TrEMBL record:
Residues 41-78, 101-120 are annotated as: Disordered. This is Oxidoreductase fad-binding domain-containing protein. One of its GO terms (cellular component) is membrane. It is found in: Membrane. Its cofactor is FAD.
Length: 497
């Protein structure tokens, strides 16, 4: 019997060539040419769409199975997806933490803020202080008075008061003020209250902090503070202790220092630029308030400003015209005497600048016609020159045997601040020529340079950075050149503030 090729209609399941090939393969008479077999395969439609190789997953093929089959398990997510999800979770967690820690920094249109209250001033975290007063100094400068909010607990008030009182006893100190939107902070030196006490108290014995602020281009913190109104809150941290000027002078009440008279007393000269007058006032108040009543240590303040508006009222006249800073200067003179507190004013707009000859007038020492015996504008008065005796051993010479934190110039170059007053480290280590501790600390006359970085660098050289801290560094600038010519000035200590 002759084998035959069975052909079904197109679309029928039986059109597969595989169903008829077995019978044809039994005889060589039924074998078709390869071209004919290819045409038959092309003519016969498949029972289901062909699989697209390399692009169709096994999950898609499983979908063609009967519904009775169990669905396949979902394949694991790619590593890239897990990385994206993990990153988003970390970012969300960091944002939540930052939002939670600074939720009290949200500033409303009325100038108020959402703050967590009840904390006392400390050096680790920022706490809210309320703006209770704002006074204009010039078109670009003002004084803010800060106080703990009314909702603060009595314990917080007492702890804050104690901490600030200790800072005033130490000498120079500052606070950090935070700009909450950008999370940046800047140091401000509180102004002293020139009165019977160093801290200002209200009826509730609340400690107040006054800061002198100048709005400068690009200064985000100063711009933020310029927008604060009375009743709003500001985040504050501190205090940050700086230098103990009274211990460096050896002029504290109750110390073993010999009585200071015109013959051998120390002196303080302060070069202040702009808002650096806040540090000058703080240093002067510290020296004058902690020294014995018999002391006559003189303080000279040379204050440079760009505009004359900053010094309104400094020339005398109606006291009501004086701005808050000038009032403090005049009150300091009224309390301690114009002979002890000298003030010189310089204004860039009037082409008056601090000259090295002005500094020489005060570092030349008692008995020199260029020193305290001259009349100094605007609060000058004459004193009788006193002949200076043979100079005692200098503090730097006595500190050479063993580095003293207060009187060694090499040690000072590496310092950021002095030890806290009253601590175990707050002691003079000076030795005399025989290697013994002197009966009275030698002390050193001081030149303080305070103001913008350019002002400080021009007069005393730049500060240096080491181990993440800003340190004093060696003395440079104009004062270094002056010390090379004047041996008296070479014995003075220079503090960059």
């Amino acid at each position: 019997m002759r084998p035959s090729l069975r052909v079904s209609r197109l679309g029928s399941p039986a059109t597969s060539l595989a169903s008829v090939i077995p019978c044809c393969r039994t005889s060589h008479l039924c074998r078709l040419p390869r071209r004919l077999q290819s045409r038959v395969e092309l003519a016969a439609p498949p029972a289901r769409p062909p699989a697209r190789r390399h692009f169709t997953s096994s999950r898609q093929r499983c979908a063609d199975n009967t519904e009775s089959e169990a669905p396949s398990q979902r394949p694991p997510k790619s590593r890239r997806g897990l990385w994206v999800v993990s990153t988003l979770l970390l970012v969300a967690g960091a944002y939540w933490t930052a939002s939670d820690s600074s939720s009290h920094d949200q500033v409303h249109d009325d100038g108020s803020s959402n703050h967590r209250t009840g904390s006392s001033l400390n050096q680790e975290t920022f706490v809210p202080f309320q703006v209770v007063a704002r006074e204009t100094v010039s078109p670009t400068a003002f004084v803010l008075t800060l106080r703990l909010p009314r909702v603060a607990t009595p314990e917080s008030r007492a702890a804050t008061r104690q901490l600030i009182n200790k800072a005033w006893q130490h000498g120079l100190w500052s606070i950090e003020v935070k700009q909450p939107q950008l999370q940046i902070a800047r140091d401000y030196t509180p102004l002293p209250d020139v009165g019977d006490a160093n801290v200002k108290s209200s009826d509730n014995d609340d400690v107040e902090i006054r800061i002198f602020v100048r709005t400068v281009p690009g200064g985000e913190v100063s711009r933020y503070l310029s927008q604060r109104v009375v009743g709003s809150t500001i985040d504050v941290r501190g205090p940050r202790l700086s230098f103990d000027v009274s211990s460096r002078l050896a002029s504290r009440e109750g110390s073993d220092a010999a009585p200071m008279g015109p013959a051998g007393q120390k002196q303080v000269v302060i070069l202040a630029g702009g808002t650096g007058i806040a540090t000058a006032l703080q240093a002067a108040a510290s020296v004058l308030s902690t020294s014995p009543s018999t002391s006559t240590i003189p303080v000279a303040i040379l204050w440079a400003n760009r505009l004359a508006q900053d010094t309104v009222g400094l020339e005398g006249g109606d006291a009501s015209l004086a701005n808050p800073v000038v009032r403090d200067l005049r009150a300091l003179q009224a309390q301690y005497g114009a002979d002890r507190v000298r003030v010189l004013s310089y204004v860039d707009a009037q082409r008056t600048f601090i000259q090295d000859s002005d500094v020489h007038k005060f570092v030349s020492g008692p008995g020199d016609h260029r020193g305290w015996g001259v009349s100094v504008w605007p609060f000058g008065s004459s004193t009788t020159p006193v002949a200076a005796p043979s100079p005692p051993p200098s503090a730097s010479a006595m500190a050479s045997a063993q580095p003293c934190v207060y009187h060694s110039k090499k040690t000072l170059e590496r310092l950021e601040s002095d030890p806290e007053y009253g601590s175990a480290r707050a002691c003079c280590l000076c030795k005399n020529a025989s290697g013994r501790t002197p009966a009275s600390p030698p002390g050193s006359s001081l030149i303080l340079v305070s103001g913008p970085d350019g002002f400080v660098s021009a007069w005393a050289g730049p500060k240096t950075w080491a181990a993440g801290l800003e340190r004093q560094g060696p003395v440079g600038g104009i004062l270094r050149k002056m010390a090379a010519k004047d041996p008296k000035l070479a014995e003075w200590q220079v503090l960059k503030l």
